């Protein structure tokens, strides 16, 4: 599969290592598959930089955004990525639980699929929902976040941003800071970073960072100040107030004292520290505005890269499906 | 009534320590004295190579009627019980409305009589409307035929109510069957809390939620002299708490479900709601503790917690899907394949836990093949190899996690009160549906 862009550029063929017509998580991806996505994203970023012209890669295909949970950023990013590739897009945001309308979410998805959809991009508050759709639908399924389970494109764009600015992942020390237990972004980052050879430290209060994480080969710390000097990258995760059944720390104020990334803490990091935040951030809780908007922050670059990563994922998933079908 | 001669089977009756190849004669609804010469007019069932056991009893079954007939009815549930080898079931009262009055008990008995499948014994509610506030009319419920009390579906939460229930039941010598769960610890929970729930991002239900309530129930039973039966034990901690309580003479008994001695929380990686039950599938060390508890006698009974749910309810997102699985038609095969063949239990121990002990705990005149006893008999083909296919179930629901499992052993003939109520299809054939 190669394609002409305007009259200048040719995309390479679909990488041989990529055979998946779904992207449900990073846990099941190999290092080679992860690298294939990152390389494809780099290619798309290069091709589209400064060029708003649509590619014709996915012309004739339709991508449905099936968002059972609110999202602005991810949905917009997927829509734009699909349109840049020449696909039609369809937004579908069922309000509340499918149960309230008397049909199961699988019924809902099957109805949408019956309209002739090639890719369903799904976000849902319940872990595993994209996996159940993948089992029940004939089209491709991309997980855009399932509860606290995985958010593979967010993990990929975080890792892509680190690789872009640091050259590679292997050997870097990356700390994920915050509400790890309730974070799908944390899980996708852990799988991806570990496979690509990073040292991963999870940092946050003991009620939000379980000691059990060590069983996956990552380190656990409850003391941000202690780990700061060792880190090459800090990824500041949002406190998931909406997923907590009981507030796991005494006050937001106390959390900010212990874990907020502020100017004083920044002064004790390595000079080339890279700060990511998958957003939306609670300003003043996880990170203070001066740090979020400062020179070490790659927060907006993440958003830009998200588009390239999602173009890459759509291209790979559709390409694998077409190869299957042909 | 037809006289039935079960010829040449291996008769195993733990109630009398009996295990020998012999003939068993049934007449007038009762077991006849052994070693009588046949008269010649008997219907002969050749049981060569078969196990002949006192009819199996499942003391934890949700028949769903009244109120949730889309999941199961008393007629379909008891048909499923027969197909699974059970001659008696005790049904749990969390129906809609709950079984908390004499009239409700009589309704169940009446429907069971109309269905005319297996015996149905009624477990009635501990509290009025199963609300956990005031005692139901336990004395009148006993008169109506209730064999035990339970608010299962929920624990009896109020410790004072539980204490009063133990004290009051001393008059009737009836056990209280409690679902041991501290609800604050499991709120929103979908599966066992452990590494797998952490990786999957699913809210967990820690073992401690079960262990804390098991401890409370045992302390209250000990303080009052009452009888506590801990339902569907699943955690290593609870098995050990019960083991110690038994050692010091507390009147505690317990039961385990086949899924809890067979499956672990790893199954949830499929996100299939047929692996969602309460208590949840726990980890390997809990499964091993259940196996050890079965082997050393800490766990008295094997029950199914048969919990039918219509397909569309289980087809929901994992957090929306209800807890529970069907079990009547897979239990015997799982006991044979998972417990007897690997050597965790002898045949005699397994039959004790599936017949003799449930009868003893509920005070039923069952669970024995002694001459004069009711002629409830299960004839088991121990080596029959089969594959679990929910479409073949008699149950109205198909929510089993064991789809496609290769099991050995099935009930071949089930006799209730001297009448043949179920005969398995010839080997290799299927129900024409």
Describe this structure in words.
The complex is a heterodimer of chains A (326) and B (433). Chain A is α/β, with parallel strands linked by helices and 326 residues long. Chain A folds into two domains: 3-150 and 304-325, Aspartate/ornithine carbamoyltransferase (Rossmann fold), CATH 3.40.50; 152-302, Rossmann fold, CATH 3.40.50.1370. Chain A contains eleven helices and eleven strands. Chain A has helices spanning 31-48, 73-84, 105-113, 129-136, 152-166, 184-195, 224-227, 252-259, 263-266, 289-292, 299-325; strands at 3-5, 9-11, 62-67, 88-92, 119-124, 140-146, 173-177, 199-203, 219-221, 233-236, 274-276. In chain A, helix 1 crosses helix 5. Chain A is globular. The model of chain A has no long low-confidence stretch (mean pLDDT 90). Chain B folds into two domains: 4-52 and 373-423, Urease, subunit C, domain 1; 55-362, TIM Barrel, CATH 3.20.20. Chain B is α/β, with parallel strands linked by helices and 433 residues long. The mean pLDDT of chain B is 97. The radius of gyration of chain B is 21 Å and the shape is globular. In chain B, helix 3 (138-144) links the parallel strand 8 and strand 9 (148-149).
Largest sheet of chain A: 5 strands, parallel
The SSE order of chain A reads EEHEHEHEHEHEHEEHEHHEHH
Strands in their spatial order, largest beta sheet of chain A: 9-8-7-10-11
Radius of gyration of chain B: 21 Å
Write the layout of secondary structure elements.
The complex is a heterodimer of chains A (326) and B (433).
Chain A: E1 3-5, E2 9-11, H1 31-48, E3 62-67, H2 73-84, E4 88-92, H3 105-113, E5 119-124, H4 129-136, E6 140-146, H5 152-166, E7 173-177, H6 184-195, E8 199-203, E9 219-221, H7 224-227, E10 233-236, H8 252-259, H9 263-266, E11 274-276, H10 289-292, H11 299-325
Parallel strand pairs in A: 3-4, 3-5, 5-6, 7-8, 7-10, 8-9, 10-11
Antiparallel strand pairs in A: 1-2
Helix pairs in contact in A: 1-5, 1-11, 2-11, 5-6, 5-11
Chain B: E1 4-13, E2 18-27, E3 30-31, E4 43-46, E5 51-54, E6 56-61, H1 74-83, E7 86-91, H2 102-115, E8 119-124, H3 138-144, E9 148-149, H4 159-169, E10 176-178, H5 183-186, E11 191-192, H6 195-200, E12 204-205, H7 207-224, E13 228-230, H8 236-247, E14 252-256, H9 258-262, H10 284-295, E15 301-302, H11 311-314, H12 331-340, H13 347-362, E16 377-387, E17 406-416, E18 419-423
Parallel strand pairs in B: 1-4, 1-5, 6-7, 7-8, 8-9, 10-13, 11-12, 13-14, 14-15
Antiparallel strand pairs in B: 1-2, 2-3, 5-16, 16-17, 17-18
């Amino acid at each position: 599969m190669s394609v002409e862009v305007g009259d200048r550029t040719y995309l390479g063929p679909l990488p041989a290592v990529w055979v998946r017509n779904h992207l449900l998580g990073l846990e099941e991806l190999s290092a080679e598959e992860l690298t294939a996505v990152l390389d494809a994203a780099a290619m798309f970023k290069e091709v589209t930089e400064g060029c708003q012209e649509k590619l014709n890669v996915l012309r004739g295909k339709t991508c449905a955004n099936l968002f059972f949970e609110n999202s602005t950023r991810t949905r917009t990013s997927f829509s734009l990525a699909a349109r840049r590739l020449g696909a039609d897009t369809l937004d579908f945001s069922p309000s509340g639980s499918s149960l309230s309308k008397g049909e199961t979410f699988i019924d809902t998805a099957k109805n949408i699929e019956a309209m002739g959809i090639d890719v369903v991009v799904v976000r849902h508050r319940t872990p595993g929902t994209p996996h159940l759709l993948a089992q029940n639908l004939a089209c491709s399924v991309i997980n855009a976040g399932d509860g606290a389970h995985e958010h593979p494109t967010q993990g990929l764009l975080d890792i892509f941003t680190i690789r872009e600015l640091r050259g590679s992942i292997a050997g870097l020390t990356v700390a994920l800071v915050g509400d790890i237990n309730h974070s799908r972004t944390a899980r996708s980052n852990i799988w991806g970073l570990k496979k690509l050879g990073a040292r991963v430290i999870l940092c946050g209060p003991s009620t939000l960072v379980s000691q059990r994480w060590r069983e996956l080969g990552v380190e656990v710390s409850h003391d941000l100040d202690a780990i700061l000097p060792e880190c090459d990258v800090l990824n500041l995760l949002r406190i998931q107030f909406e997923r907590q059944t009981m507030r796991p720390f005494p006050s937001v104020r106390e959390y900010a004292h212990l874990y907020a990334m502020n100017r004083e803490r920044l002064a004790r990091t390595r000079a080339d520290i890279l700060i990511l935040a998958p957003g939306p951030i609670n300003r003043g809780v996880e990170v203070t505005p001066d740090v979020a908007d400062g020179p070490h922050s790659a927060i907006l670059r993440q958003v830009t890269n998200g588009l390239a990563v999602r173009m890459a994922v759509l291209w790979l998933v559709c390409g694998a499906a077409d190869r299957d079908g042909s | 009534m037809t006289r039935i001669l079960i010829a040449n089977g291996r008769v195993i009756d733990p109630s009398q320590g009996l295990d020998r190849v012999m003939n068993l004669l049934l007449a007038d609804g009762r077991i006849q004295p052994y070693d009588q010469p046949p008269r010649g007019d008997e219907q002969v069932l050749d049981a060569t190579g078969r196990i002949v056991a006192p009819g199996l009893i499942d003391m934890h079954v949700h028949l769903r009627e009244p109120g949730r007939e889309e999941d199961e009815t008393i007629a379909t549930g008891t048909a499923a019980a027969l197909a699974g080898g059970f001659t008696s079931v005790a049904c749990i009262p969390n129906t809609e409305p709950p079984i908390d009055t004499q009239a409700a008990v009589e309704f169940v008995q009446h429907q069971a009589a109309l269905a005319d499948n297996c015996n149905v014994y009624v477990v009635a509610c501990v509290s009025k409307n199963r609300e956990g506030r005031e005692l139901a009319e336990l004395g009148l419920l006993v008169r109506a035929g209730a064999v035990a009390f339970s608010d299962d579906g929920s624990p009896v939460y109020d410790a004072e109510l539980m204490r009063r229930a133990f004290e009051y039941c001393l008059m009737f010598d009836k056990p209280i069957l409690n679902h041991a769960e501290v609800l604050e610890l499991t709120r929103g929970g979908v599966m066992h809390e452990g590494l797998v729930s952490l990786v999957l991002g699913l809210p967990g239900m820690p073992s401690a939620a079960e262990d804390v309530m098991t401890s409370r129930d045992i302390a209250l039973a000990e303080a009052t002299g009452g009888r506590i039966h801990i339902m569907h034990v699943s955690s290593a901690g609870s098995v050990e708490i019960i083991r110690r309580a038994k050692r010091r003479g507390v009147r505690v008994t317990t039961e385990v479900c086949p899924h809890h001695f067979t499956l672990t929380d790893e199954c949830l990686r499929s996100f299939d709601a047929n692996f969602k039950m309460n208590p949840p599938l726990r980890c390997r060390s809990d499964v091993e503790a259940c196996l050890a508890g079965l082997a050393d006698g800490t766990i008295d009974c094997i029950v199914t917690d048969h919990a039918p749910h219509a397909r569309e309810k289980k087809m929901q997102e994992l957090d929306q899907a209800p807890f529970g699985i069907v079990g009547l038609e897979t239990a015997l095969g799982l006991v044979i394949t998972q417990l007897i063949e690997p050597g965790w239990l002898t045949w005699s121990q397994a039959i004790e836990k599936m017949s003799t002990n449930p009868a003893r705990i509920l005070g039923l005149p069952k669970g024995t093949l002694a001459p004069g006893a009711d002629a409830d008999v299960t004839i088991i083909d121990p080596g029959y190899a089969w594959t679990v296919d929910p479409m073949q179930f008699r149950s109205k629901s198909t929510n089993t996690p064991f789809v496609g499992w290769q099991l050995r052993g099935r009930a071949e003939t089930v006799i209730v009160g001297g009448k043949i109520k179920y005969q398995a299809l010839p080997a290799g054939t299927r129900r024409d549906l």
